[in-house]
Amino acid sequence: MHPPQPEPAAAPELDELLQDADGLIVDWDGTVVDNAEIRFNALQQALAPYGVDVDPQWYTLNCGLPIRKIVALLTGPQTLPIEDVIAASRRQLLTGPPPRLIDNTIALLHRAEALGLPRAVASAAAGVLVHPAIDRLGLKALLPVVVTAESVPRGKPAPDAYLEAARLIARAPARCLAVDDAPAGITSALDAGMRVLAVRDGLLVPVAGRIPG
Prior knowledge:
Blueprint: H1 11-17, E1 23-26, E2 33-34, H2 36-47, H3 56-62, H4 67-75, H5 82-95, E3 100-101, H6 103-114, E4 119-122, H7 127-136, E5 145-147, H8 160-168, E6 176-180, H9 183-191, E7 195-200, E8 203-206
Parallel strand pairs: 1-4, 1-6, 4-5, 6-7
Antiparallel strand pairs: 2-3, 7-8
Helix pairs in contact: 1-6, 2-5, 4-5
C-alpha cells in the first residue's frame, strides 16, 4: 500500500522531468527522505564520547559518502572503534522518529510508476538502515529495487551503485534519470552516464554539464 501521494507539482511538469527516461533511480538519504539533521545528530552523539566534534558545514558537503569514510575523514589517524561508532549511530537512527518524506521526489516516483517506468534506490547507506526505513514508510511497492552499500564494491562517488541499479532494472544507464542531493552522489550518477536531478531545498533541479560516456 502506497502512502498518500503529495501534489507539489503538476503531472505535465513531472512528465517534463521524466522526458526520455526509461528508468528512475533515486538516492535515499536527503533525496527520498529529509533526514540530514537526524543523521548528523546521530553521528555527533556517537562520536561525542571520543571527543570528536562534527562540523555541520563539513558534514553537509560529505554526507553522501559511506559512513565508514566519513568517520575515517573526521578522525584522521586517531584510533577509534569505528564499528562501535557506526553501531551507536545506527541505533539512534533505527529507534528514533521516522524522517519526513521529500514531497517532490515522492511525486516524481509516483508519476514514474504511473508511466510504467521501473524505479530503484541507489544508496551509499547500509541495507540495515535503508530496508527497514522503506518498510516503515510504506514505500516498498514504489521502490521495489534497492541497492545499498553492501551491494557494490565501491561506494559513492564511484558510479557502482547507480550502474548496479540500472542493471537490476534492466535499463541502459544513459537512459536512466538519477536523483541525488549530495556532491558525491551527483558525481556518482554523472559518472554512470545518467541525466541527473539535484535535490535543492526540496526542489528537483537539473544538473548542467557534460554527461560522461
